Amino acid sequence: MDAGNSIHSNIHRYYGESNPATQENFKGSKNLGYLNSAQALADYAEILIHIKEKNNAVESPIIVIGGSYGGMLAYWFRLKYPHIALGALASSAPILYFDDIMRQNKITSAISQIFKEASNKCYETIKQSWSEIDAAASRDRGLTKLSNTFKTCSELRHSSELKNYLESLYMKAAQSGQPVVQRMCESIDETPNQGEDGTLNKIFAGVVAALSDDTKCYVNPSSSLAFKWQRCSEILMPKRHGRSETMFEAVPPNQMELMTKECQSLYSVTPRPHWLTTYYGGHNMKLILKSFGSNIIFSNGLKDPFRHGGVLEDISTTIHAVTIKDGGHCEDIFPNAGTDSQWLATVTRDEYKIIQKWITQYDTDRKSSSD
């Protein structure tokens, strides 16, 4: 990094140790009303202005960087606060994965294919498990027994709570790369299918294999509650997986009605499926950004299933798409231990050159305006 530059990392409100809402308080909107992306962006704006003033660097340019949800925040910050951020690097940001902008089963089909390539037997077990979870939940004290089987951090209130967790876990495993998926599938395949809950025991073995050895409980740890709220209140990613083409549960025609019922039960909040695209945009994005946007890099690894929700082509001379042939999720900013250092160096060098051009142009414009 060049001399004179500095890096600052900020934690999203409600996600850090200073979380104002305990698990008990995560049951309603009273303590959660300020947990949303817009408030988080406003936090970042206040913090960055304070840092610049404190360090006598009011005219110093800022580049915001983030990956996945953080990548979406970086992109949104550049849109909403162009007077604070000169540019943004949005790594693996699925900004098109909302409303009806893209065919929703593209991502789940890609994830399913990764699992199928690892083990067709594992793929079929996962595909079968959704109905078995519902069947187990419908039995006498079914949710209690499911909670025991999956060693949940607190007792399940709906079977959908477990299914949403598993969907998220499979997605994260596919993002992390083939070794994690392989480890999960080996555990699923090797666990005996015995008794009434044989399939569920196999699925739980896969859960354990995917996570660290020091994990004490699963499914609903307090650390996951913040995003569950956001999933209900604003970050609503539609599901349209078909039973024949993915390993995920088939989505019923009344999925929005069911999700509304669940979110009302958990948090007394009604999902807003069109809010993000109303507030940040998304439809006709190429046309809109070409008209007013600038200084954004969208980077995506082509082995990442979530690339289907990202920007894969340049939009203008200052809005760039960087694609990484063998890259995974956020691998340009959070490289794995096995990341190929040669292509990583090439990609980061290209990103650096683009950002340096923004800064050079900014310095030129600043000097000319002061003359």
TrEMBL record:
SUPFAM superfamilies listed in its UniProt record: alpha/beta-Hydrolases
Family note: Belongs to the peptidase S28 family.
Keywords: Glycoprotein, Hydrolase, Protease, Signal
Molecular function GO terms recorded: dipeptidyl-peptidase activity; serine-type exopeptidase activity
Superkingdom to which the source organism belongs: Eukaryota
One of the protein's GO biological processes: proteolysis
Name under which the protein is recorded: Lysosomal Pro-X carboxypeptidase
Keyword Acetylation: no
PANTHER family: LYSOSOMAL PRO-X CARBOXYPEPTIDASE-LIKE ISOFORM X1 (PTHR11010:SF96), PROTEASE S28 PRO-X CARBOXYPEPTIDASE-RELATED (PTHR11010)
